[in-house]
Amino acid sequence: MASITFKNDPVTTVGELPEIGEALPAFELVGQDLAPVSSADLAGKRVVLNIFPSLDTGTCAMSVRKFNEMAAGLENTVVVCVSKDLPFAQARFCGAEGLENVVTGSAFRSTFGGDYGVTMTDGPLAGLLSRAVVVADADGKIVHAEQVAEIGEEPDYDAAKAALA
């Protein structure tokens, strides 16, 4: 279990993030159009997983905006923004914000949170995903993994981008 905080109060997750050098765990999420968004569909591409609790918070929304900006300049890279928000809410947010460089994936009916060790088990956000970033190279090997220690803080965007260099 990862020990993180929410507004400085302790929170735990169901496990730990996959480690650098491991294969990216397979996943299947639900896209904005209700079609699957799966790791199999992204084979041969570099993958950035921006994982967070909900688009309805300022920090989560900011991370999607910043990763959208970053994705515009990355070749052979797909940024997947993962939360338990419903696909309809993800589509509304990206449409209203004009975000076209990221893919959203809803984990509302998948095992993603458990497979990646990011489902929070306690605290006011129990059941939602913690804030984390996982980056894999085109061979599907993890080259960066960050479990953000305080849910209200943004991830290290520069470290994620540097892992792709």
From TrEMBL:
The keyword Disulfide bond applies. Keywords: Antioxidant, Disulfide bond, Oxidoreductase, Peroxidase, Redox-active center. It catalyses: a hydroperoxide + [thioredoxin]-dithiol = an alcohol + [thioredoxin]-disulfide + H2O. Residues 18-165 form the Thioredoxin domain. Pfam families: Redoxin. Disulfide bonds join 60-94. Gene3D superfamilies: Glutaredoxin (3.40.30.10). Its EC number is 1.11.1.24. InterPro entries: Redoxin (IPR013740), Thioredoxin-like_sf (IPR036249), Thioredoxin_domain (IPR013766), TPX (IPR002065), Tpx_CS (IPR018219), Tpx_Peroxidase_subfamily (IPR050455). It comes from the Bacteria. Transmembrane segments: none annotated. PROSITE patterns: THIOREDOXIN_2, TPX. One of its GO terms (molecular function) is thioredoxin-dependent peroxiredoxin activity. The active site is at 60 (cysteine sulfenic acid (-soh) intermediate). Belongs to the peroxiredoxin family. Tpx subfamily. Thiol-specific peroxidase that catalyzes the reduction of hydrogen peroxide and organic hydroperoxides to water and alcohols, respectively. Plays a role in cell protection against oxidative stress by detoxifying peroxides. The active site is a conserved redox-active cysteine residue, the peroxidatic cysteine (C(P)), which makes the nucleophilic attack on the peroxide substrate. The peroxide oxidizes the C(P)-SH to cysteine sulfenic acid (C(P)-SOH), which then reacts with another cysteine residue, the resolving cysteine (C(R)), to form a disulfide bridge. The disulfide is subsequently reduced by an appropriate electron donor to complete the catalytic cycle. In this atypical 2-Cys peroxiredoxin, C(R) is present in the same subunit to form an intramolecular disulfide. Homodimer. This is Thiol peroxidase. It comes from Brachybacterium fresconis.
